[in-house]
């Protein structure tokens, strides 16, 4: 991709993030998380260890962000989601050490389900005009 195209893409991404609602930000994080996991799996399959490591570390950074910003008082299932994030971190750490694509695939499938659920919830809140209750704390 040329420099001009990359600059346009960067501006679009920056604007998208800056104007996104808290719910949309969660969806964007899940989308990027899914992309990182898909990239990591492909890199392992192509024996590109450095690329896999970088993608898995970025995926873990996103999970840490999602976990740290989870408001456990705002939602009755926050504790379960928190436990799931901890599980993801463990699986991805092990996958990175052992280059285990099965662990990555398992997490990727669960992330896809969560991404789709958040996207549906965000769309429903947007279309209903209801004031959103987010899972993101104001301190995170």
Description:
With 140 residues, the chain is an all-alpha fold. It is built from 5 helices and no strands. The protein has helices at residues 3-18, 22-45, 49-68, 78-98, 101-128. Helix 3 packs antiparallel against helix 4 (78-98) and helix 4 (78-98) packs antiparallel against helix 5. The chain is globular, with a radius of gyration of 16 Å. Mean pLDDT is 85; it is low at 131-140.
Compact description:
The protein is an all-alpha fold and 140 residues long.
Span between N and C termini?
A: 34 Å
- Taken from the alpha-carbon principal axes, the silhouette is globular
Please give the share of residues in helix.
Answer: over 70%
- CATH class value: Mainly Alpha
Main beta sheet strand tally, sense and closure: none
Strand content: under 5%
Radius of gyration: 16 Å
Extended strand count: 0
CATH topology: Four Helix Bundle (Hemerythrin (Met), subunit A)
Instruction: Name the CATH superfamily classification.
Output: Flagellar protein FliS
